[in-house]
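Field reference: sequence -> structure
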Amino acid sequence: MSNKPNLSFGRPYLAIPGPSVMPDPVLQAMHRPAPNIYEGDLIDMMPPLMDDLRRVARTRHNATIYIGNGHGAWEAALSNTIEPGDRVLVPAVGRFGHGWADMAAGLGAEVDLIDFGRKTPFDLNRIAEALAADPGHKIKAVLAVHVDTSSSVRNDMAGLRAVLDDLGHPALLMADCIASLGCDRFEMDEWGVDVMVTGSQKGLMVPPGTFFVFFNDRAAQARARMSRVSRYWDWVPRADPEMFYQYFCGTAPTHHLFGLRASLDMIHGEGMENVWARHETLARAVWAASEAWGQGGPLSLNVADPAHRSHAVTALRLGAPLGTQLRRWVESQLGLTLGIGLGMSEDGDPKGDGFFRFGHMGHVNGHMIMGLLGGVQAGLTALDIPHGTGALEAAARVIAQKA
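Structure field:
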């Protein structure tokens, strides 16, 4: 029998970029019997809950809830604004822009896709050229991912709106904030975003299973011009319901709503500006440690420029098969789960085994991030993967300076 103890026993730490860590108040709020769905507390709590969702999205406009995942959010947004045969422009960075483009194609849209790779954000000049080449305004929407969960690139949504405005192009600006909402700063109204989608399982700290579509008056006008929208995807009754069931086109996701109420209380109790600042500090601690490790080994951050990195997720390259080996070691030996190299395959590494990701979104604090980094340090050491020194000290300095 081995005399080496396994150190994974205890509470596991899911450090992937969604589902994120669920706070105890959220879990406790959901741990209750099924409620009355016809009258009482559940029905009464909906109007203030929707108002608090708008506060997170930084919008005074419409908010809707659906049962489903992020792919459903893409389809809901498109189904209310894009007819078969309409053109959409998709600037893609990483995996998820391609996913939204494919969803649009599946609904009959003509897709103009500009692939910017996986390491840098949108080139706004190239997007401007594509829009300028559309003087007849056949492009009805620009589908843009704010933070790509696979590559950890953060894109400039305000800059994208400025491009549209400078050209006088009427296309809707639609933003995927599934990875970013509640983590990276996002200002729907101030930045001129017409439609925004997000999910429950990342910055909102609730289990997967619900998603949200926010839309302004310009998007509502596009919906009014649609020849038809399926009863389930139609956002009109969801945004302004006459009866409770219309929020959801049927039975409510009851326990998700109780969890969401608890998570929104936590977010607004901390304050959005403070939530964003916490995520930025913890992200910078992750980057500092990663840069130190990279000084003496093969590890590197996928996004070179800190200004283009997400504050919610960090993608790293270690080289195949070391990324997968590190993930498996820290999970089996420490109870720490890292994200896979999703969509990060490259020549000689078709499964992305050379990449891994840190999720640092939602319910995370300083000691959790230091524990995450300490676990990776142990894994690099145990697997004899070359790495630089001083990583934990570098991360600690970032946290100490901000505290």
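Note: The chain has two domains: 13-20+271-402, 33-269.
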